[in-house]
Amino acid sequence: MTAQRTLVLLKPDAVQRGLRGEIIRRLETKGYDIVALAQRTATAEELAAHYAEHEGKPFYPGLVEYMGAGPLVAIVAEGESVIPGFRSLAGATNPTEAAPGTIRGDLAREWDLPVIQNLVHGSDSEESAAREISIWFPELG
Ligand code: IDP
Q1: What separation in Å is there between the alpha carbon of 94 and the centre of ligand 1?
Q2: Which residues form the active site (predicted)?
Q3: Please, what sign has the CA dihedral across residues 44, 61, 91, 100?
Q4: What's the whole-number mean pLDDT along residues 93-116?
Q5: Among the listed residues 138, 114, 140, the one whose alpha carbon sits nearest the alpha carbon of residue 61
Q6: Is 50 a catalytic residue?
Q7: Beta bridge partners of residue 80, listed in sequence order
Q8: Ligand 1: distance of its center to the CA of 2 in Å?
Q9: Is 137 annotated as a binding residue?
């Protein structure tokens, strides 16, 4: 096995709710290393590139609005099997279905909005990770 890198986003609801420290603590406590970290408000171009696979879906406009509504924190995390490992830490997409013990299961719930606000993003494959790291951290791509 070799170390992987994954792209994690602490979405604007995580920043707005003051959960950056709690989420980063879970990532570090699990044993993953933070290679790069930056807070900024995403541009429309970054979000269009990041969520290209969802363009045309009913929730896409709400997703882009949610993700651009305030600052987010982009992180490159590194470690053995960190791609599936961070997805396990994050839990299921829908926070109602996310298991207790996961970031989404413990810290998120469904709000009365058209888009699911679930605090974090984590790359879902090595191919996605490479693509997403090059979007958010072109200098590492
Ligand atoms: P993931 O973030 O768990 O990998 P994706 O399917 O890649 O899930 O979806 C990206 C994001 O879009 C989700 O994290 C969530 O914020 C939002 N989303 C996904 N599916 C739905 C849906 O059916 N309704 C509303 N929002 C959704």
Answers
A1: 8
A2: 121 (pros-phosphohistidine intermediate)
A3: positive
A4: 93
A5: 114
A6: no
A7: 3
A8: 29
A9: no
* E-assigned strand segments in the chain: 3-10, 33-40, 72-80, 120-122
Pocket test for ligand 1, best of 83, 112, 116 (most atoms within 8 A of CB): 116
3-state secondary structure labels for all residues of 77-100: EEEECHHHHHHHHHCCCCCCCCCC
- The DSSP-derived string for 25-38 is HHHHHHTPEEEEEE
In whole angstroms, what is the distance from residue 63 CA to residue 38 CA?
21
pLDDT tier, 1 (very low <50, low <70, confident <90, very high otherwise)? low
What is the rounded CA–CA span in Å between residue 87 and residue 6?
A: 10
Residue tagged 């997805």 (tokens): 87
* Separation of alpha carbons 80 and 38, rounded Å: 22
Cβ atoms 27, 18 nearer than 8 A: no
Chain-centre distance of CA 16, in angstroms? 15
Residue in the structure block whose two tokens are 């709000």: 111
Which pLDDT tens digit goes with each residue over 52-85?
A: 999 999 999 999 999 999 999 999 999 999 999 9
